[in-house]
Design goal:
Chain lengths: ~400, ~270
């Protein structure tokens, strides 16, 4: 494997090389009190010395006493909105004498060019792979998503500081990109941030030819990008191994689909429904949720018509509405749909789990509901005492 | 996915709240479909909803949808003026595959507007009537004035040897027919021991009860097909709304066999 070393100066040269190639470079940034994604022109735009503290229903940024750039766990949003925005125009039309002629929005309009994403953590890389399958891998695809994904340059990062809410180890998606058992989206480079007696550096695995070329371009621009030595590789392995140990939560995935299907009438759903607010936060932060609704927008004169697609959630009452009422009228049924979809029916639909273990739904739940605890409760309940499979 | 433009050619009033809209493609290219499939029909600026195609799958005439006015979008669709341009995406979903019943007896059970999605299957049978054995249509409507497609019912019975049984929830002055539930008719319908096919469309409770009654008559659950209704926003497996556990009813359905559906329909609010 081609593995090289970047210092922070080398990382800047990588960002420059990507920009020279015409990429709009995005990476982690502190936004509204949490880690999100923002434009990266300089390494100084990255959240140096920031860490986080996460627990069920709790998220707080905290200052670290080191210069690490990627020493935090999953932020408020994954890379999902970069490719699958919360709102997007499907078509626009003008009402005239010949009626309405819908046309798709100009794909160039408002686009900043192809995207390079720096610092996609392992769980989120797996989630992008899942969305690729959902939105592009079946009979009908999402053309706008395909356009945004096309040519994307991905610099993945090993998760070095998992949170108390993380369980990617259980889901086979992390902490090291490409090393899990679950399929992940393709990436060009994968880096592991190391800080030891040999200094602060990034051990970079070159995964594609294009990735190697970009590093070569950084070298031509004057950066030192030496091959990694055995001590660098060992240091990177150690970061990943310690992260795997530090995982705050676990989910026993054995027979999970069977458990959830058999638990359809479990009293656990009634209990969780007494706490769940059906606020949809969990689906809004989840990197794999793909449900959408459509809205028709007309201007005041009625001459301009626009059809928008917006993120939706199975926790909403409208979501399952058919004439006469909602199919899932109770919170019990909606929570059951959410958990069953993530961990069971997703497997039947797409041949993989719908959960990557990022822990966001636990962190951002105002009622501190924890899916790993709910699954444990279902197991304890033995798959629904009330009624068998 | 962009909608295709279709112009309203004419509209037929079927009863007090149901109309059949005839559409012609603005680009001249007809829309081929299989009996039981639906389209996503939209009034630009108002909304888009799933509606089954109710015309003849072999015919060359206008595209037909029979729409019950129950809310804002269905109202705007049903009352679209001749000449107005509507959006059509599709056809989507699985069909009845009625030809699979050739050589045997076929029973169709309809409740209310559920007769509309079954109409293309009936027209398909009529076109090759000799390929089938006994064919029965059991149709339940709320009142005699709710009965849809009266002319068709007569033609099917008189010219195509289809046993048509209509039953209503509530009678009206002059009604001499049956009063009760459509499921009651299932016990009496005549069909043989093998190669039987049953197609059922109507409210979910009615479909489940009908399927159970058909199973009691010895019909194999895999030979009973139901057309499922769920909220649908995309019709192409992307919006998630139509999920019934692992099924995307817009892609895997709406028509599915009862052996697949039964365990899912048995759970409330799944
Ligand atoms: C596969 C399929 C085939 C159908 N075929 C027919 C048909 O041939 N004729 C017919 O009259 N009706 C049919 N329906 C039902 C029809 O789609 C609804 O009556 C229609 O969506 C109601 O919309 P509305 O805006 O008028 O009603 P409202 O009650 O105002 O509904 C608001 C919104 O909820 C959703 N919604 C409400 N009711 C339904 C429903 N029953 N099914 C799906 N979404 C719903 C729609 O998005 C709708 O815009 C079919 C439904 C499905 C799923
Ligand atoms: S279900 Fe929760 S832990 Fe799993 S991927 Fe979604 S947000 Fe992350
Ligand atoms: S059904 Fe619910 S859990 Fe599944 S993708 Fe949609 S919003 Fe997420
Ligand atoms: S209607 Fe959108 S997924 Fe089925």
């Amino acid at each position: 494997m081609d593995t090289r070393i970047l210092t922070t100066d080398g990382l800047q040269a990588l960002v420059d090389a990507l920009q020279t190639r015409g990429f709009h470079v995005l990476g982690p940034a502190v936004r509204d009190g949490a880690i999100g994604f923002g434009p990266v022109r300089e390494v100084a735009d990255l959240p140096a010395g920031w860490g986080d503290e996460q627990e069920a229903g709790h998220y707080r940024l905290r200052r670290r006493d080191d210069p690490l750039l990627f020493a935090y766990a999953a932020g408020a949003q994954s890379a999902k909105p970069l490719f699958f925005p919360a709102q997007e125009v499907l078509w626009r039309a003008r009402h005239d004498a010949n009626g309405v002629h819908p046309t798709p929005p100009d794909p160039e309009a408002g686009a900043d060019g192809p995207v390079a994403v720096l610092g996609v953590r392992s769980c989120d890389l797996a989630a992008v792979g899942i969305q690729d399958e959902v939105l592009l891998g079946r009979r009908y695809g999402d053309a706008a998503y395909a356009l945004r994904r096309e040519g994307t340059f991905v610099v993945a990062v090993t998760c070095s500081h998992p949170a108390a809410t993380c369980f990617c180890g259980s889901m086979g998606t992390g902490p090291r990109p490409g090393a899990g058992t679950a399929p992940a989206a393709p990436y060009d480079l994968a880096m592991t941030e190391v800080l030891d007696e040999h200094g602060h550096r990034f051990v970079v695995e070159v995964a594609t030819e294009r990735g190697g070329h970009v590093l070569d371009e950084a070298v031509r621009a004057g950066a030192a990008v030496p091959a990694a030595g055995p001590e660098d590789l060992a240091a990177a392995d150690d970061v990943a191994a310690r992260a795997a140990q530090a995982m705050g939560r676990q989910l026993d995935t054995s027979g999970l689909k069977e458990l959830l299907y058999a638990s359809a009438e479990s009293p656990v759903w009634d209990e969780v429904a007494t706490r769940c607010l059906a606020c949809a936060n969990c689906t809004q932060v989840c990197p794999t949720c793909f449900c959408t609704d459509v809205r028709d927008v007309t201007d005041l004169t009625g001459a301009l018509v626009e059809r928008d697609r917006v993120w939706d959630s199975c926790f909403g009452a409208e979501y399952s509405y058919i004439h006469g009422g909602s199919v899932r009228a109770s919170t019990r049924a909606r929570y059951r749909q959410w958990l069953t979809h993530k961990l069971a029916s997703w497997e039947d639909q797409f041949g993989m789990s719908g959960c990557v273990g990022c822990g966001r739904c636990i962190t951002w739940c105002p009622a501190a509901i924890d899916l790993t605890a709910e699954v444990a409760a279902l197991r304890h309940d033995g798959g629904g005492r009330r009624d068998g499979p | 996915m962009l909608p295709r433009r279709f112009r309203v050619a004419s509209t037929r009033h079927d009863n007090h709240d149901t109309l059949t809209v005839h559409l012609e493609p603005c680009d001249g290219a007809p829309l081929a479909f299989a009996a039981g499939q639906f389209t996503m029909l939209q009034v630009f600026g108002v909304g888009e909803v799933p509606i089954s195609i109710s015309g003849d799958p072999r015919g060359s005439g206008p595209l037909q949808h029979t729409i019950r006015d129950v809310g804002s979008v269905s109202h705007a669709l049903a009352f679209a003026a001749p000449g107005e341009v509507l959006g059509v995406r599709g056809p989507f979903g699985t069909g009845w595959d009625v030809a699979d019943g050739k050589g045997g007896d076929v029973v169709l059970v309809a409740g209310g507007i559920g007769l509309a999605p079954l109409r293309p299957a009936l027209l398909e049978i009529c076109a090759e009537r000799d390929d089938y054995q006994r064919v029965s249509l059991l149709y339940g409507a709320r009142t005699p004035s709710d009965v849809l497609f009266g002319d068709d019912l007569r033609t099917w019975a008189e010219r195509h040897r289809i046993t048509v049984e209509v039953i209503v929830d509530r009678g009206e002055a002059g009604w001499t027919g049956r009063i009760g539930l459509v499921t009651q008719l299932i016990g009496k319908v005549a069909f043989g021991a093998d190669r039987r096919l049953a197609l059922v469309c109507g409210p979910e409770v009615m479909m489940r009860q009908s399927a159970v009654a058909l199973v009691a008559r010895g019909v194999d659950p895999s030979r009973i097909r139901l057309s499922m209704e769920r909220n649908m926003k995309c019709g192409i497996g992307l919006c998630g709304h139509c999920q019934l556990r692992e099924l995307f009813l817009c892609l895997d359905g709406p028509v599915l066999a009862f052996d697949r559906l039964e365990p899912l329909m048995a759970r409330a609010e799944l």
